[in-house]
Amino acid sequence: AIDNTSHLCLGSQEKNLYAISEITNYQNQRDGCLTTFGVEMDPAGLQQVQRTSSAGPGPAYVSLDRTGRFLLLANYVTGNVVVYPILSDGLLGAPTANVMHVGKSVDPQRQEGPHPHAIVASPDNRFVLVPDLGIDRIVAYRFDAQTGQLEKAADLDVKLPPGSGPRHFVFSPDGKYAYCSLELTSEVVAFRCRNGRLVSSGIQSTLPDGFRGASTNAEVRMSPDGKHIYVSNRGHDSIAVFAAGEGDGKLKLVETVGTAGKTPRNFGMSPDGKWIVVANQDSHSLVAFRRNSDTGKLQMVGAPMECPSPALICFAASK
Hints:
By secondary structure, this protein is mainly beta. The chain is built from no helices and 25 strands. Strands 9, 10, 11, 12 and 13 form a 5-stranded antiparallel sheet that branches. It has a 4-stranded antiparallel sheet with strand order 1-2-3-4, with no helix packed on it. Strand 15 and strand 16 form a beta hairpin. The radius of gyration is 18 Å and the shape is globular. The two termini are about 25 Å apart. The model has no long low-confidence stretch (mean pLDDT about 95).
């Protein structure tokens, strides 16, 4: 029972779970909150062990660096990114980095200032990439995995089309490609990756031809085998399935599948790549799909399960 949690990540060896609270008034300060839980073998055995400030209001995303020794956090409302060391007991130490973004873009309601919406370490752990919805840019940092410090790498930043609103970001398993959801225009952009530099392979719509309603996209995930990309559409209420081209990473639409609910803010893929569970936030339901590993297509399994305002699905590896 914590306030307005919207993003989670498991710690190294899955002994701890880190959850943000998307609030703006933690301990009477203009901050959000970050809660650490101990994870027991019992599925119901979450135990709160620490609460700390997110060093800015409205946190939106948490992830680990590739060593599992640092927690990376993006504060959407205030526009800064923060790095925390993870101590030997899984608790968080004082931040090792806290960097503010600057700028704005063309949408006066959504892009009046910086709004970092994700923070992801590169597969080689040398860089940290931050899609910033408010400034239409993927902001790049060089990352020191010994000290947890961030150094701006403006030469590696990626400028995206005005009003596109980059949201979430994922690397391919081999690190050669990356993909970013563009929330405001309901698109996904594919990149080739070389030494921290992202080179676009093209942008694709995540909506079917002819759709004219209001919709924004949200989560982007890649299958563990690197064959397929999945993006959720909120408004059209669907998952767009793409095949990732070998050699260039370009995307080809396979199908668009309804989620049997409203506003799929997030979905998770099982570690073996066989299952996807969708969080339909506004219809208060979870829906399971079986994934065909050859075609990437999804088949709904069973009936929706009631769940109040689900915002994120985080799979744990089987024990």
